[in-house]
Design goal:
The complex is a heterodimer of chains A (355) and B (163). Chain A is an all-alpha fold. Helices cover 68% and strands 0% of the residues of chain A. A three-stranded antiparallel sheet of chain B has the order 2-3-5. A two-stranded antiparallel sheet of chain B has the order 1-4. Chain B is elongated. The relative contact order of chain B is 0.17. Classes of the chains: A mainly alpha (355), B alpha+beta (163). At the A-B interface, α1 and α11 of A face α2 of B.
Amino acid sequence: MWQSFVDLTHQLIPWFDGGLADILIIVIKGLALIFPLIIMMAYMTYAERKVIGFMQLRIGPNRVGPFGLLQPFADVFKMLFKEVIFPSKSNIYLFLLAPILAFVPAVAVWAVVPLGEDFYIANIDVSLLYVMAIGSVGVYGIVLAGWASNSKYPLLGALRSTALLISYELVIGFVLVTVVMIASSVNLNTVVESQSGGILNWYWIPLFPMMIVFWIGALVETNRAPFDVVEGESEIVGGTHVEYSGMPFALFFMAEYFNMIFMALLAVLMFFGGWHSPFEGIPFLEGLFEFVPDLIWLLFKMSFFLFLYFWIRASFPRFRYDQIMRLCWKVFLPFTIVWIFVVALMTQLGIGPWF
Amino acid sequence: MMKKVKKLVNDFSLGELRTGLKVTSKEFVNKKITVQFPEERTPISPRFRGLHALRRYPNGEERCIACKLCEAVCPANAITIDSEMREDGTRRTTQYDIDLFKCIFCGFCEEACPVDAIVETHIFDYAFESREGSVIDKKGLLEIGDKNESAINKAREEDSKYR
């Protein structure tokens, strides 16, 4: 018995030296990304409540800690201590699988995104395709949650979301195609690199309408107001969230916020020059802001988009389901297709600014 | 024609959305109107009808003479009074209970009282720790009166010119 154990260890040692160390490094890299992400997500809930509160002439959370800064932690602990309730006659395995299926893709997409020059976990050539593919898997979480809950409102929410998310994936895909055509690469690193050289070289100028379409698509994809028909508090109570409590609910919640942060990041990478300083190429200012790290610029730009989420949520009433669908199929889709043709022509003929 | 073009331009430049965003961004920087309740309070009218109190004369003698007018006038039957003769021959209450679950805070008891004994104070943020706690007895009512005598006096003074 003992001898066989020793033999096994000896067999494992070469593997231990090579393979395990690599795996350990990957795990550490992953944790180094996920922990700041979780903190960021927690403080986004705080920021959301504060911003929306301010826009409604309220002051938002301010009881827990100075300026209510510890509110997210209070919420987390509340969630942790809540009982997880399973609806009777629901399919418990699917019921628990759903939040995991929603959460895992939301985290997995972060594996390939560059957060700075040579600052990423994995740099794969088709990172944009990977992002689109993994991002789509998140739909399963919502659909399964609606179905497994064995309840009417969640099912309605799931039904609403399925068609919606799939339709808007198409629009977002087409928008990204225009970017890919200009950058002539599906590698996120290369896309960002091709935008170097100051604020005028970012793609938001040649692709401004596409950026707007992308952002509206991003709002739908992340189920944010004014397109939050999946939850639709005033119509179907809480949609897919109705039967969830405690940590499974928290997983859905985290997945939504991770997706939000990710969509903001994607918008920055695609249209706002990623980690590039906006002052590149401007003689005096370039030197003045030399010391600012890549990551800070990236976060700075992202925070603008994150603020936009809250701003839009505070401003607009919820769309009706058929209106969202009409917007997708009759407005955005023809619009983006025309733009694809325009951009394709321009890039082929080498006419500025689209090349 | 011109109107149509204008509308088209407005629609494609997301004109109405921009209007909405402008409104919220203006409110974003405006002064917030929230009142931080336990620390800050909104002003209260001198006629505000809150928690009840029994008052005393400045010499410490309780005002209530057990005339039972308040008990009679109470539309919710929230007041229960029992009385007997004290050693000095005056009639005094032995029991004066107000059930705050029954009470509708109409203020009739206060109006009916010939000696201004039962009054309603400005206290509205009170709580009971048990179901029985809703009944305040004479001792409790007198205590509330003693504690808030100055506030009660002030409210009555402010309102006196309208009586």
